[in-house]
Amino acid sequence: MTDPNQQPRTTDVLIVGWGLAGLVAAGEALAAGKRVTIVDQEPRTNLGGQAHWSFGGLFFVDSPEQRRLGIADSVDLARQDWFGTAGFDRDEDLWPRRWAEAYLQFAHEEKRAWLRGMGVSFFPIVGWAERGGYTATGPGNSVPRFHITWGTGPGIVAPFQRAVEEGERNGRVTVLARHRVTELTITDGAVTGVTGEILAPSGAARGVASSREVVGDFKIAASAVIVASGGIGGNHDLVRAQWPSRLGTAPESMVTGVPAYVDGSMQPVSAAAGARLINGDRMWHYVEGIQNWNPVWPQHGIRILPGPSSVWLDATGQRLPVPLFPGFDTLGTLAHLRRTGHDHSWFVLSHRIIEKEFTLSGSEQNPDLTGKDIPLLAKTRLGKGAAGPVQAFLDHGADFVVRDSLDELIAGMQALPGGDVLDAGRVRTEVEARDREMANDFTKDAQIAMLRSARAFRGDRLVRTAAPHRILDPKAGPLIAVKLHVLTRKSLGGIETDLSGRALGADGAPVPGLYAVGEAAGFGGGGVHGYRALEGTFLGGCLFTGRTAGRAAAAAV
């Protein structure tokens, strides 16, 4: 790590934050021959930011992987899905709309080839996330578009990290850990650098909360500053403060899907320099969160990436309405559950379902894909039994109940915190009624119809959707219940930017010298996703905004 006492006092491009968007921007500025300095408040172990922990999902349109699976996709269909999901309806959506159009073209044309040229490859089976379940113009993906990076999050970070590290060896990049920006320097109306605090050295492992002890200060002048500081998901107080009434009341209890450093601290700093923050009430939190039995950061939660078969019950045992099935509509489900008056809900399923359908989000929860281990992948995805990380939660997770009979399962659910509100009779009615619908190939139960439809897609049939069966069938057991929590994750609003990544002020004009990328910019324009996202679009937004702003900033200095 660069010695803070030897830090440069000037640089061409200064990047605040070393997550994926920041690394991509740095690589582009380097390729243009510029000197780059990267500052971050965390120890160097966290290089790569949240992207390192991700599942590595990327949204492509009409990819070779899709075509090989018989999926007919197009920009027109993707646009229909994106805009139907986003629900843009504000004056502030001018630039987000433009970013959405630009990103759809990027996802269709250049994105995959650009990544492949850097050695990034993809798992051949495309996932179908956010399936919607409404009409053709409603929210959701009409077709599978979730492409998993071979190597997951670390695999997508790797080429950009290599470029930065090569720049360090050549003396053209300086990376300053434990440097927290507190102010953007303004000279004659333009952003010309940053000032901030040097935090005490820390040996904390990746993701582990580090101290905030201040041991000094710093000042760096720059021709351009790019804010790449992420969102607010690690700051529950800020999440609650910005929680929109359309999603019901904010939960009293949540688990956290991002490290504590995702604190939103650069938002007021950027606003003080003239940047306009928009769409702060748009956010993306999951409803399938579970407490990590082996936590890294405070209140560490993991998201279940469920297949479509589990029965979803609210805290009282009432089944969720159509089309709020597992994997169909994240924010629709969140809004419904927030109006029940309880902070948790339940999955009820069989062991046959969990071994086929449960995947846990995160690079560390998918050692086969992250480690590019083909024998382990074949065993995990195609073999019998639950995957190792899922089995660990079955063995140790505080939110899992495993029993042989429905009465025993309900008693185990009621024994967990908050289980006292569960109506045993309601649970039995819902599960038994669902099972009666399995006697015929036809049904009035929309979830059963959808899961049968899902198995028409080869990818789902192979690795994501269990053969339809009665949950109470003893041969499919034992029975499993999972207590689910709200899991904080992404900000869908942020710094308003134009299509060059320049931060815009209240008057709509660019703030000279200031750019924003990634989640800090709402993944583009201050809210490219609108109210809801299509999945696989968060990392892609970091890539696209980082590339765009890195090139624009380099060209401007």
From TrEMBL:
Superkingdom field: Bacteria
GO MF annotations, alphabetized: steroid dehydrogenase activity, acting on the CH-CH group of donors
Residue ranges constituting the FAD-dependent oxidoreductase 2 FAD-binding domain according to the UniProt record: 12-539
Keyword Oxidoreductase tagged: yes
The entry's keywords: Flavoprotein, Oxidoreductase
Coiled-coil segments on the chain, per record: none
NCBIfam families: PRK12834.1
Protein name: FAD-dependent oxidoreductase 2 FAD-binding domain-containing protein
Origin organism lineage: Bacteria, Bacillati, Actinomycetota, Actinomycetes, Micrococcales
